Structure formats: structure tokens, C-alpha cells
Amino acid sequence: MSDLGDFGSFNADADTEDGVSADAGGSSPSSSGETESSTTSSTADGTSAEFEPTTVEPSGDDVGIGAICVSQGLRVDEDGEDTTLRAYVTRGNRSSIRIGSYLLAPYPDGETLFCRITGLEYAQQYHADDATEIHARRAMRTDEIDESDYKFVASLEPIAVLYDDSTEQRSASNRTQSGDDGELKRRMTDRVPKPQTVIRRADDTEEIKTGLKIPDDGVFLGHLSVGGEKVRTAATPPTIDYRLKDEYDAGDPLVFRHSLIAGGTGSGKTHGAKNILRQYLDDERTYPMDDGREVSPAVVQFDPQDEYAQMHDDNPELDDEFARRLEREDIAYGGHDDTTAFVPKVGSASYAAGHHRAQQVEFTIPFAMVHDNPWLVAGSGLNDNQYGALVSVLLPRFRKQYGNGGTYEEFTTFLDDPALREELDESGRVHEATFDAVRRRVLGFGHVFDQDARPITELVHEFVRPGGLTVVPTYHINDTRATEAIVLAVSSLIIDQKLSNDPDYDRIKETPLVLGMDEAHNFLTDADSVQAGKVINKFTEAAKQGRKERLGLFLITQDPQDIHDAVFKQINTTVVLNLGDKEAIKSVNIPSNLESKVPYMEKGQMVVYSPDNSEPVELTGLPKCLTRHGRD
Questions:
Q1: For 481-504, how does the pLDDT look when each residue is reduced to its tens digit (9 = 90+)?
Q2: What region holds the Helicase HerA central domain (predicted)?
Q3: Is the per-residue pLDDT at 28 higher than 50?
């Protein structure tokens, strides 16, 4: 093969062998290389004459980034898979185009198609083979890439048609210029754009929020993003805030339709959860009750890592400039003064709280709560027969003998009576083997029930406070069984009172309440035991009736696949941060185009899937926690 070095040594100004300049019979590129061409020709006397340079590009300024093309079809179909919508992107705009970017294609009558880029490709401009030695060597010897031989085509997914509800249809830009107050609305895509329609980036906040069905007001979650970069507009602030509906005028507030935050270790899960909870604790946030009162919500957060009591304190890293930005965007920030750590008393375990300044109150679980929730005292799996013996025979017999105030110690003494065992066996009420199995499984809770602290049932008025944050830390408890018993006992107390038509504690019934549970997979998992089934049933009922009773579940987990389906199906808002496990990603049921992004998201990046609030979107959370976060 011949050496291609002659391409590098060629000089257009050098003389040829016959002494004639190399440009005598050819053309010389203009300085732009694209916009002009000129031709020289020999005259009769041997001199050369130059023709007038001509423009080869259209006159005027470009508008938009390209145009709808029909070379491979132009079709909008009810079945998204049959939709064919593509746009040619001009060379100057190609480097800035990203998959997921939002675009607008106007119709002649003033309506606009709002769409999203789902694919990008280079295609051959001319029928030529560029997989050759010459093309490769030429590319290796230049610092620039020439795209003039290639088409750059974007595949588009239509999301909605935007229209002005005023009688005269106008585009968003004209409406702004004329000062018209017509409201921009959306509907399903029901028409195809015209060929050669100029497309442009969506850079207006109202257009983007309307197109994605994002509400203007509500609970702040983060800023709209594409590929980890915030979507920018020409407005001030340039970012687009994403909020959850929080007014009854727009349907039930989504807080009472339950939320799930899923993310792996280091994904910013707790950081994000704190920022969201801080919005629910805003002084101005209230919900109407049946009696006409407007009441601030109470937040009860179970905290296995002892991080949420820090929400009492300000974040020292939150500077004045960042605070002013938060105020402009109406985002609540700063430590919440009404934060109390209710610390469960378990045996000799001690709670150290040098990392926060929240008030601390010790409490214990009274054994009397077991009468309403027998599964609390079952340390491991009981079969139906054993659970029936505990509920129908042993606990009622104990209650009759010791009264409602009987303690756990008295209950174990009660079960140690051999005469009772023999009596129940001979009467056929409880077989001796079943009696022994129940006794073995209820042992080992002596450090959980009836400790030297006030019972939680006597602290309900302080535990549930309108506008207050109650944190239940369990990090100091080394016994997993004890932790589960405490969390389930307290959460069951709240749920039972919320769902009851004749509650013992009106404070719980009459207060809007957000029940937060970190590491929710440890408590709401599918397991082959009677008590696990009872727990799932209780939380499922809470999830189903939460809207009516103003009870919202706020679940946080790194293993969403372990949460029982009956509870998961009631979740309306799913916030997904970085997850590396394929099974976990698949379980959160987000659209496939966003699902593929989850393993690559950086800390603080998230996907929000809330069908009753907006289209599925990608967000970037705040870079700083709104309250204190992390230990020194």
C-alpha cells in the first residue's frame, strides 16, 4: 500500500511541473470554509479573472436547533411504539444536545407539541463508505472533526400538547409579551406536527412545568434535571423547582398518599429525607380537619442510625447567600426548635446525644399493649395453632387473673405454673407441646417491657405534637428483637388510634401525622410467620385509609425489594436515588428510560415517580442539608 504522507506535504501555493500555479484551474476555499465559494478562469489574454463569491447557506439568523424531518416517517400514534417523530439538528447545536432534553415544536395555530429526546444518532449524508484507511488516517492527522458529511438526527417522544385556554390561541412567548393572563394547559398528544417545523429548546418555566404536569406550589423535593445537569431557563431563578401537591383543592395532599425514598449507602438518602421532612415542618404548613380547624402536621420518625434528632440544630455550613436563595424559592430551612428525642429504655443500654441539642425523654413499652397487639411478645415465628393459643387462651386468662396492669415479669411467672399447663392440656384447650412452644417464644423480652421510665401510653400528648418532630432513636439498642418490638409497638399505637372510630387518645386522632420509618425493610418485609402477617396487614390498612385519616407513611430503605407488595402498592410517590442492585432497581417500578440511569446517578441525584403529581422526572436535590447533618 502506498504511503499517504503526500496528504500532509501538499501545498496549494506550490508550482506544478508545467510552471502553472496549482490554483490556476481550481478553486480555493474561503476563510470560512463553508459560507462562500469563488471560481477563477483564464481570459483571452492569459490573465485570470475571479467571479463574484456566492453564499451557499440560507440568509438570515437561525431560530431553534433544527427541524422536524420526514425522511424516515412522521407519525404520532396512540401506541407509543408506533410513533415516529424525528428532527434534524444543525451542526452548531449538536454538541449541546442530550438525551432527555425537552423540546418544543409549534403548530401553525399557536398550539405547541412538548416532547423529549429519546435517542441521538449520526447518519450518512451521502452514500459513501467511511470505514476506509484513507478516512481513518485523515482523521488521525487532524485536530478537528468535520461533520458536514453526516446527519445528526434526534428521536423524539411526544409528551403533551400545550395550548392557551383563552379564546385566541397564542404561543407562550406572544402571551408574555402582550401581558395576556391566559392559562397554559396540556392535553394528550392528539395531532402530528408539520414537516420542517422548527424545534427549539424548552426554556420557559411555565411551558416546562405545564408540559410535565409539575404543580407550581407544594412540598419542595429538588430541581428538574437532565443527565445530572439542572434544566436552565431565562427566568430568575433559572432552575425549575419540583414540588408535591399539598392542597386539597388539587386532590388529596400527596403526603397522605404515602412516600418511599430508596437509595443505597452514600446516595444522599438521609440528606434528602431530612430536607423533605423539613418542608412538612414549615410553620405555615397546615391541613384542614373535619371540625374546621387548620392544624400543623406532627412528624414521628423512627431513627435506627440516630441522625434525625439533628434536625433540631441549624446547619453551620448553610451560609447567608445560600439562605437567601432558599428564601427566594420559598424553601423552609434551619433547625426545627420543636424537636424531641423520645429514647426507648431497654435494659442497661445508654443513649449518648453529644451530636445534637434536642430535648430527650425516656419511655418504656408497657406490657398492657400486648393485649391489643399479641404479636409484639412473639419473638419468632408462631404457627396458627400456637398464635391462637396465645391470643384466645393464655393472654385472656392472664388478664383475668392480673388485670389490665399485669407486667411482663408476671406473665412469664404465669407461664411457669406447671398446674396451668396440665389443666389446659387435660381440658383440651392447649396441648402441652403448644404451651411449651408459646412459652419459649415469649421469653427474652424482660429488658423491653415495663422498664424504669414512663410508659409511652402516658406520654401520647407530648409524643404527638402539632408542628413538632418526634424522633425515636434505636441506635443504642444492640438487640434486633428488642428494636423491632419497640418500633412496631409505637407505630401500632399510632395506627390503631388513627384508624379507630372510638380512640383512647384524641390527640393522635385529631392531628395530621407523618409516620417516618428508616430501614423500613426490617419491619415491613414478607416473612413466613403469623406476627409478620399481622404487621403487614396493619400497615396496609394504614396505607389504604391514610387519606381519610390524614396519616402519611414516609418510608426510607436501601432494599425496596424487601418491602411487602401489599404496602408497596399503596405508595404514590417514589423517590429513587443511586441503587446498584438490579433486583432493587426493578422493584421500584419506574419507567425503563429512568431505570437505566439509576446505577450511574451521583449523590443527591434522584428519579421521582409520582403519577398523580407529574410525569416521571429526574431531579437534583439541594447540595446542602437544610438542617444539621453528619457528625463531627
A1: 888 889 989 999 999 999 999 999
A2: 253-472
A3: no
Q: Are 41 and 49 in contact (CB under 8 A)?
A: yes
CA dist., res. 446 & res. 450, Å (int)? 8
Cell of 336: 426545627
In Å, what is the CA distance from 562 to each residue of 304, 376, 449, 524? 17, 21, 28, 8
Q: Which is nearest to 596 in space by CA: 220, 227, 160, 46? A: 227
Residue found under cell 441521538: 120
Q: What is the pLDDT of residues 498-526, one digit of tens each?
A: 999 999 999 999 999 999 999 999 888 87
Q: Which is it for the CA torsion 457, 461, 464, 468, positive or negative?
A: negative
- 3-state helix, strand and coil shares in percent for the chain, rounded to the nearest 5: 30, 20, 45
Which amino acid appears at position 587 of this protein? S
Where are any strands of DSSP class E within 280-369?
287-288, 294-295, 298-303, 339-344, 359-364
What is the amino acid identity at position 61?
D
- The letter for the amino acid at 28 is S
Q: What value, to the nearest 5°, has the Cα angle with vertex 363 and ends 362 and 368?
A: 170
> Please, are residues 560 and 578 in contact by the beta-carbon 8 Å criterion?
no
Average pLDDT, the chain: 87
Residues 6+ away with beta carbon under 8 Å from 153: 69, 86, 87, 88, 89, 120, 121, 122, 123
Give 507: exposed, middle or buried? Use CB within 10 Å, 0-12, 13-18, 19+.
middle
User: Confidence band (pLDDT; 50, 70, 90) for 607?
Assistant: very high
**pLDDT digits over 242-272, tens only?**
999 999 987 899 999 999 999 999 999 999 9
Contacts of 514 (CB under 8 A, 6+ apart): 255, 277, 280, 297, 298, 299, 300, 552, 554
Phi-psi region of 73 (alpha: psi -120 to 50; beta: other; left: phi over 0): left
Ranges of H-type helices in 338-479: 384-389, 395-402, 408-415, 418-426, 432-442, 460-463
Q: Is the pLDDT of residue 389 over 50?
A: yes
Contact call for residues 155 and 119 (beta carbons, < 8 A): yes
Strands (E) in 175-214, as ranges, are: 184-187, 198-201
Q: Which pTM was predicted? A: 0.85
